Amino acid sequence: MSNTEALNNTRNLVLRLLNDIAPEADLTSLRPDLSFRDQLDLDSMDFLNFVVALHKEFQIEIPESDYPQYMTLNGCLAQLSAPRS
Amino acid sequence: MADFVMPTLGADMTEGTLVQWKKQAGDRVTKGEIIAEVDTEKAAIEVESHTTGTIERLLTQPGDKVPVGTVMAVIREDGQPTTAPIHEAARRAAVTTPVHRVEVAPVSPPQTGRLRISPAARKLAAERGLDPAHLQGTGPDGAITLEDIERAGAITEVTKPGGVADRQARMRQTIAAAMARSKREIPHYYLSTTIDMGRAVTWLKQANEARPMTERLLYGVLLIKAVALALRRVPEFNALWKDGAAVRSEGIHIGAAISLRQGGLVAPALHDADQLSLSDLMKTFQDLVKRARAGSLRSSEMSDPTITVTSLGEQGVEIVFGVIYPPQVALVGFGKLVERPWVTNGQVVPRPVVMVSLSADHRASDGHRGGVFLAEIDRLLQEPHIL
Amino acid sequence: MTKITYREAVRAGLREALQRDSKVFLMGEDVGKYGGTYACSNGFLDEFGPERIRDTPLSESTFVGAGIGAALGGLRPIVEVMTVNFSLLALDQILNNAATLRHMSGGQFSIPLVVRMATGAGRQVAAQHSHSLEGWYAHIPGITVVTPATVTDARGMLLTALKNPDPVFIFEHAYLYSMEGELEDGPPAVDLSRAVVRRPGKDVSLITFGGNLWKTLAAATRLAQDGIDAEVVDLRVLRPLDIDTVLASVRTTHRAVVIDEAWRTGSFAAEVSARIMEGAFYDLDAPVARVCSEEVPIPYPKHLEDAALPSVEAVLQTARDLCPRSKK
After folding, report:
1. Which amino acids of C are annotated catalytic?
2. pLDDT at position B110
């Protein structure tokens, strides 16, 4: 699997999790560099559910202090595709 | 015999539509168990039984719209004599007339594999291309009848995508009616204060570091718990205005305002919020938000709130001037958590602060007590470990 | 329209028949000097003389047999049997002669006999005078069985029956004799072939005949107060049964209750129920229900007699149980 494919897979997975949390949101016009919260009208509960979903899907621990890095699509992809120690 | 009635699931609900029965005649129900699903202007609500016993008979059929207070089912409480539903009519007849007995063919137990459906209903279902297998029969001995098939068509109409816009419009009307009534009838007064959240935020950060991801707390839960505990000291705000007087509520059931993304809001109850640990309150709140948005709240959650807490801080507003949800007598609003210069011990320091406001019914309480209420919330938030 | 009692209606029919045709004569126990057990032939002896108004001995087999003979000989006898209970003594004449001779003679003999009898309970005359056996007679091919429930039918059915070349049995519910009703305008003779919808409705068909028509109509009125629109079908003629009218009704309402004063087991209601099942099964939205008498000899004490018979309340409750829950 190439890097591009892997990235696409991760991207699709993240979008699916977002869709689960905000089923009525239009994800096709989501700008990857801007915060989900404003674009999708997510509140703190939604966001918490989102990071918990990432934790379950990707088997990663995300400390609360890192939450802000997951607030954009680009941020999520950067975090999720970074080599893990 | 206890009546199961169409409940009031909000200040201005006058009628509701039975969506489906979750129990059948003859089934056992325990108090608090979900017995029916009811469609209101706001959402589809799961309605709980107030009684433990056996369902004697169901009187309302799915799809029926009935006024609040309509008897929808009769529940035989434990210890009461049995009367099989089908013989009920005959029993009543026997009271008023000479001993004529209406003989009814013995009811055979439901057969496995074979649907209990009248020949005419089966034919109509086939004509309409409808599968009757999942339908609930309301005819003699629970058989599916023509009417059930016709109604099945009607219910499908309601749940079509077009129904969403319709529900939003109805929800808007309900909110409009409740809020107009509130402003028309309730002499509001407003108080506000700024609370230093430094300790609470620090405590929460540490607490969450120690917690696994799935058990972390939201900051909003601290606010709700603080309000709930504060109400123990100022119980006059945990009350409902009924027949010209404030009636204090026994439990502290915080109505948490939850905005729905399609528009509108609901404020279902977090039951006995003062008695729940933060972890339990968090779990309950999470579940409540999820169900509010999925449209599957329970009747008690809609009818039980004794006060409302709203937090609009997430959208950046710093202060809320709330409108009380009748018949409640108070609403507590939280604004955004912001860093502000704060003077403490003669020093100016940056502090996370929040503006809390109280909208209260002046018929039920006075400003002095409102001040005590807000001060108590402040005090509790300075000691987050005891929340 | 003229208001008249059922008794007067029967009497008017008899009188008209006797006046119209000199071959018509009336025969039975107490029809002459006594004026009829139910006073249906009061004054006839003076008016028509002992040749045509004949009192008979208490021997049903004999005088029904004599009636068959007279009919074979070209007369038009009307035989009155006091009650259906006593008619059993004449059953051999009825079943083995009256009903069979046309068939056994290859159509050579016809028996234009009319037999009238009272049927039914409700007057505290106990088990030997109270039964409803018209359903038994309806079992027999070769005869016509009618159950007039209205004053128009009480007068008119007799006149039509006399024109019939084969035996006609008229069952008059004893409870009806003193009931008043409106005599319909039009020719006195009425058909002996059709059931009639006495009250149109769309929710449930209440199917009955004879004396129970009035209880059933009363039940329908009360059901209407509950929002249940009941249709009442008066069968009028038990043999040959006009099942088409019944089926048409059931196809509209999808529910049927048959009300019959006979015992449920083997009752005429059972026959109607079976015919509905045969002819309208796929139109039924509920099982066909029946309201019949309790399976006991009709009791003498008032409260027990009332309890044994179909009541308005029983019709009401049975119909309610069949109707959709929204109607209850």
Report:
1. 60, 129
2. 45
